[in-house]
């Protein structure tokens, strides 16, 4: 797999996110990631709109699970621990929530504002171990760009 130039992607995403609006920017961010990063079958936001619950936000891919409590799945673990979850084989995770049986690996990045969990960005791939540490660092940087370019308070 050719390695992705995340520095370039970051500059492009920064230029694309030219509103301060969370809805517009989150929709654009998913579309951009889906277009630029190979071998994804789903990318989208889950937002904390009720305490300890994740509601489905803008995404690219098939219709997905909603809602997801903080106590469940890989997205719930990212929300609870406020830490990125990188899973090479989702079948090995007992409480993984299978929205699409095709998904084999997953990366979930929490979005935290002043200690409060605003939401998560979830990426799924049909390939096992699709996300390397390099991808994690690169996509975390894309999420940081989304946060910088958006009014999330
Ligand atoms: N697999 C996720 C649920 C969200 S979908 O993949 C879109 C999880 O276990 O949290």
TrEMBL record:
Provide the Gene Ontology terms for cellular component. cytosol
Alphabetized GO MF terms = L-methionine-(R)-S-oxide reductase activity
- Classification via Pfam families: GAF (PF01590)
- According to the record, the segments passing through the membrane are none
Q: Which SUPFAM superfamilies match?
A: GAF domain-like (SSF55781)
- The lineage's top-level taxon is Bacteria
Chain ranges of the GAF domain: 36-142
The leader peptide range reads none
Which family is this sequence assigned to?
Belongs to the free Met sulfoxide reductase family.
Name this protein carries in UniProt = GAF domain-containing protein
Query: Per the UniProt entry, what species is this protein from, by scientific name?
Result: Vreelandella nanhaiensis
